[in-house]
């Protein structure tokens, strides 16, 4: 990121003090104002990152009304600015009021420039971190509607989607569970000439065989017990649009034959019906299973495979997409913060490193779920790796931990998380894995502020 000149605005009506501050803080570009009006003019013109604001401003040098007004105006005009208010000795009430209004910190006179300098330096540091976070958030690529992708492998997928979208080719999306097959299918539909018509999705693995047939092909009245009226199936409902068959690898054999016929002849027959109904539907299929192996095992028809795989697009797992996990985490974070009205300001830098280092076996779905949960549960201003249930990324060992206690604590927490995860959240099983009693696990969970379901 481009480094910016660091500008400190000092709002102080005492010329002696102003002079003293000028000598002490010449490492920053200094701006001076004696009153609220001058301060706002500087704010607008020079956008200082940090403001040192004396609350006792003229015309009421003994009161704080004008100073508070200045603070409120700065907050409104440039909310990212870090304002350090300076109050009279012992004036804690007004200092706290100012903090409540959004001031970054306060300092009580008389001025000790060394201590004040530390506060100012830290304010610039925080400002830089927040600015970095803001810049990263804006940096995110959204190459397709609803799709976040920044990595080269994923951008290649996006280009493939863009190429096949305008055609009518039956497309097979392969990828691990949660990697974004449905998101891509929707994007493909959205880019096609069928975008105005419906996108109808059905999960072949989630519906029992008997039901799946009538769900897909519809049924005539009286076709079976409970078939009280003629009902069109998903294929018909997708007329003019796109049909998304998720988990196609789980489709039962008898239905595979019926689906093949539909794909070859583009007509369907409802269950219990005799009439052939022509349908104009584009088909996208997806599976996380290895169809080749299923074919070899006799569980998937090879002729159907060739029909559905006119074009095959492989969606890489999240761990194979450098940079995508952090890019997505930022978007999911923003969304969750808005949805849950959280006061969190951003993701800590070490959190981004931990996200990038994690394996994400559950892919994007897991990431989205963890960020959402962490935003609800977190206490601090920045989301930490621990909030996400992640271990901080290795840093090559150059930096020592705070002390041995922290190293032990971290290791303990890590082992606890792993065992709970391996035990699917079952405390008794986790206790067995760690060789401790159930109460001991509960004690540890309390100690590490872990909710019973945070495994
Ligand atoms: N590239 C992406 N950009 C934004 N969100 C994504 C992306 N990929 C996945 N997601 C989100 O992750 C979640 C899982 O995605 P999706 O349902 O598309 O995965 P899938 O591969 O179809 O999963 P399954 O195999 O379990 O059906 C969804 O909430 C989706 O919105």
Automatic annotation (TrEMBL):
Coiled-coil segments: none
Any single biological process term in GO: regulation of DNA-templated transcription
Annotated ranges, domain Response regulatory: 7-124
Residue ranges of domain Sigma-54 factor interaction in the record: 147-376
Gene3D superfamilies: 1.10.8.60, 3.40.50.2300, Homeodomain-like, P-loop containing nucleotide triphosphate hydrolases
PROSITE patterns, A to Z: RESPONSE_REGULATORY (PS50110), SIGMA54_INTERACT_2 (PS00676), SIGMA54_INTERACT_3 (PS00688), SIGMA54_INTERACT_4 (PS50045)
GO molecular function term, any single one: ATP binding
Record-listed 4-aspartylphosphate modification sites: 54
Keywords attached to this entry: ATP-binding, DNA-binding, Nucleotide-binding, Phosphoprotein, Transcription, Transcription regulation
Keyword rRNA processing attached: no
SUPFAM superfamilies: CheY-like, Homeodomain-like, P-loop containing nucleoside triphosphate hydrolases
Pfam families: AAA_lid_14 (PF25601), HTH_8 (PF02954), Response_reg (PF00072), Sigma54_activat (PF00158)
Keyword check for ATP-binding: yes
NCBIfam families from the UniProt entry: PEP_resp_reg
Protein name: Fis family transcriptional regulator
The species this protein was found in: Salinisphaera orenii MK-B5
